């Protein structure tokens, strides 16, 4: 179907590369001009001060725009232009990371953004459906130099060299797949495949579930979809932003370079642990405790925990007020409590109603005494006198203390910490749980776990925000503003280094940092709130995102789904995952079950069927296990073979560490470049990690291991979503035994390799 050639059939390869070099150099020249122009304008805007409030605000948005432009033009430096489409009508278009117009702004761009409709045939055209394309050319570049090219002539009569009828840009694709891994995910913008393109460019509204086996590009697709949506629906998403949720911090670091390389910085990347502003949930707890906290029964538990804080005393309470003792009867409190509850307001917002009732009752006592008619007639006080008494009572420390005791204003953190710390409170709030389950909730204060985050969020809903929460938010926003101010200066410094290089050409520009410091910039920002949408969203628990993307979504608990749905009232979501890889005990084995409570059956399913990571030899091993997990599940088809069969070796238990070190050393020696992943049972990460790092000091292990190390030792939970050139899986039986979802964990472990897989099994004898 397609012809791959070193010679294009028109010009010798070198000449052809030379011609492409001319074009690519021209594009870089134009990119430099645009970047310099943006940097110059940024500097000019930052130098200008004064003017009306409106002028300041306009200037501030210009500063943001130019700062973003400088950032974007720098981000697309590597691989700026990667493709060319020759039409049957003789047209010729270059495809790249951003769109570039010529100086006159002619309609025909010099470079077409990969997300633009005009670029789409680059990804979709096949010999059977050429879409007006005669030839697709992939350009390979290193820095600004064209190093090679691959052509596909979309000619139905030409034979396919590999029989992969469905692949587009096959030579470039295979080159990308066979390249050594660096510990950082790369973008796939040059070689997006047809089934992936359909997901990436699916319309914005509604819930789209992307189900696909290991290595089918779900993460890659999720990231490119974020970039596509921000480009195509910029107006809709500019103010509301896009949230991308990943399974853990290591994974976010792994993917963190992809969107900047696609010149998109407007996506907020977060783990579940970071979704409650002001809380960093790093505490560790048992899988069972996390699973319990993920169940929706916790909504009832929290509701009861809040009710428990709305107290009615058993005995009358005595309150001292200016040397006088007032008595608060349980019945008075009960009536006040019931009225406040009936308002239906969240706890903290109902407190004023409770206060009114209680203060009113106490004021009546005072009025009865001081307004009593000595002759036995009606009380002598007017309503204005009573109002004054109520006002004074509110200020009384004794009254305030009583109100705080009976109906305390609570933060979510206070509610949850008090609940966990006290078995009696747990017993009151969770009668529906078993004693063992209640024991799982009990713990001393001191940090939060990721499974606490949806509970904090739920508690925040039940409590309503009090003033302290709002003040905390203002403080967080201020901190982010400072960060932003520093970021702008950083960009300005970056742009300056480009300018400095150009000084030889007479292009000297006065540096931004010569004119303004972070504090002054911050002052100006406070006048005109100029945070990026993502930054504002990060600080605000009640932010409603324009679109939410969830990766490894099978791991989300029902409580986590509730949180995410609150963040996305428009239900515009992309949910990416593989139900066969579910490891969390409260994770989902079925998309229908997870989504039904929120959108019933109004969601679309897209499936990715081809694995780009895992070679056929390794996928065959994983496929046997998949059948055990669920005979109905089908493994993805591997796009390539490595020619290296996986090995599986049994060693005596006492030799395991030594054998592992020896095998790791061999794998490292066998790789030119690239990374080795050693996946071990969670219960052996400490000793086996220590053994490997003792022998190979460059190896990384720990809570957040450095993925760019040659060797990384990690658990399955840490390895989720990652990949390595060579993978050693240690003690698979124990990995399976460690969790009720152990077989899915092993499936994840076996599918992390791009080239080679080895399995080490200890025996007891
Ligand atoms: N079209 C493509 N072109 C080049 N590389 C690709 C393409 N699609 C996927 N890949 C590569 O395949 C590998 C696996 O992709 P990715 O991590 O997105 O898969 P996944 O479906 O999320 O896997 P898992 O379920 O195991 O987390 C990555 O190295 C990715 O860059």
UniProtKB/TrEMBL annotation:
The keyword ATP-binding applies. Pfam families: UvrD_C_2. Gene3D superfamilies: P-loop containing nucleotide triphosphate hydrolases (3.40.50.300). Residues 191-615 form the UvrD-like helicase ATP-binding domain. Keywords: ATP-binding, Helicase, Hydrolase, Nucleotide-binding. ATP binds at residues 212-219. This is AAA family ATPase. It comes from Micromonospora globbae.
């Amino acid at each position: 179907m397609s012809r791959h050639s070193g010679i294009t059939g028109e010009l010798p390869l070198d000449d052809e590369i030379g011609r492409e070099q001319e074009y690519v150099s021209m594009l870089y020249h134009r990119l430099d001009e645009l970047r310099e122009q943006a940097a110059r304008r940024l500097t000019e805007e930052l130098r200008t001060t004064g003017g009306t409030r409106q002028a300041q605000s306009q200037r501030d948005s210009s500063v943001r725009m130019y700062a973003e432009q400088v950032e974007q033009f720098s981000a697309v430096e590597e691989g700026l232009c990667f493709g060319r489409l020759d039409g049957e009508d003789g047209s010729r278009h270059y495809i790249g990371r951003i769109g570039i117009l010529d100086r006159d702004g002619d309609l025909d761009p010099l470079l077409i953004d990969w997300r633009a409709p005009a670029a789409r045939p680059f990804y979709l055209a096949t010999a059977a459906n050429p879409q007006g394309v005669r030839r697709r050319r992939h350009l390979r570049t290193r820095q600004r130099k064209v190093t090679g090219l691959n052509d596909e002539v979309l000619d139905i009569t030409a034979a396919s060299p590999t029989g992969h009828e469905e692949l587009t840009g096959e030579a470039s694709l295979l080159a990308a797949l066979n390249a050594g891994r660096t510990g950082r995910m790369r973008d796939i913008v040059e070689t997006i495949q047809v089934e992936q393109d359909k997901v990436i460019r699916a319309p914005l509204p509604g819930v789209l579930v992307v189900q696909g086996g290991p290595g089918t590009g779900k993460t890659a697709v999720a990231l490119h979809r974020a970039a596509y949506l921000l480009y195509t629906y910029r107006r809709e998403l500019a103010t509301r932003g896009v949230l991308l949720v990943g399974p853990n911090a290591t994974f976010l670091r792994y993917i963190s370079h992809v969107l900047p390389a696609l010149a998109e910085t407007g996506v907020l990347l977060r783990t579940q642990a970071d979704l409650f502003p002001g809380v960093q949930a790093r505490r560790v707890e048992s899988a069972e405790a996390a699973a319990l906290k993920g169940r929706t029964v916790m909504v009832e538990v929290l509701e009861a925990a809040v009710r428990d804080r709305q107290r009615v005393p058993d005995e009358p309470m005595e309150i001292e007020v200016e040397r006088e003792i007032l008595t608060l009867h349980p019945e008075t409190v009960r009536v006040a409590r019931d009225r406040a509850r009936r308002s239906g307001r969240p706890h903290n917002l109902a407190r004023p109603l409770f206060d009114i009732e209680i203060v009113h009752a106490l004021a009546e006592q005072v009025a009865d005494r001081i307004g009593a008619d000595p002759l036995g007639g009606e009380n002598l006080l007017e309503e204005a006198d009573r109002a004054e008494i109520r006002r004074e009572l509110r200020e009384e420390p004794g009254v305030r203390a009583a109100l705080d005791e009976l109906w305390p204003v609570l933060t979510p953190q206070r509610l949850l910490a008090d609940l966990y710390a006290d078995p009696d409170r747990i017993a009151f709030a969770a009668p529906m749980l078993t004693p063992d389950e209640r024991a799982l909730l009990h713990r001393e204060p001191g940090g939060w776990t990721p499974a606490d985050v949806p509970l904090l969020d739920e508690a925040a809903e039940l409590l309503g925000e009090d003033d302290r929460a709002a003040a905390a938010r203002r403080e967080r926003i201020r901190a982010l503003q400072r960060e932003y101010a520093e970021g702008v200066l950083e960009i300005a410094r970056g742009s300056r280094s480009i300018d400095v290089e150009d000084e030889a050409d007479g292009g000297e520009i006065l540096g931004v940092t010569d004119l303004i410091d972070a504090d002054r910039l911050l002052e100006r920002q406070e006048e005109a709130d100029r945070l990026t949408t993502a930054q504002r969203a990060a600080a605000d628990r009640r932010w409603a995102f324009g679109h939410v993307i969830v990766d490894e979504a099978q791991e989300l608990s029902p409580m986590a789904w509730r949180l995410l749905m609150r963040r996305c009232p428009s239900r515009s979501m992309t949910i990416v995952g593989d139900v066969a890889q579910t490891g969390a005990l409260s994770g989902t084995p079925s998309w229908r079950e997870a989504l039904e409570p929120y959108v019933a059956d109004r969601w679309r399913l897209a499936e990715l069927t081809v694995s780009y990571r895992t070679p056929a030899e390794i996928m065959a091993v994983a496929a046997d296990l998949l059948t055990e997990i669920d005979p109905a599940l089908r493994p993805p088809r591997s796009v390539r073979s490595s020619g290296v069969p996986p090995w599986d070796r049994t060693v005596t238990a006492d030799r395991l560490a030594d054998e592992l070190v020896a095998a790791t050393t061999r794998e490292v020696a066998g790789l030119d470049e690239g990374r080795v992943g050693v996946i071990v049972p969670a219960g052996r990460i400490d000793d086996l990690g220590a053994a490997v790092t003792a022998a190979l000091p460059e190896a990384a292990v720990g809570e957040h291991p450095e993925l760019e190390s040659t060797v990384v030792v990690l658990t399955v939970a840490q390895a989720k979503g990652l990949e390595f050139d060579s993978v050693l899986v240690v003690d698979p039986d124990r990995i399976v035994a460690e969790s009720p979802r152990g077989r899915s964990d092993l499936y994840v472990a076996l599918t992390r390799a791009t080239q080679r897989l080895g399995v080490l099994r200890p025996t007891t004898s």
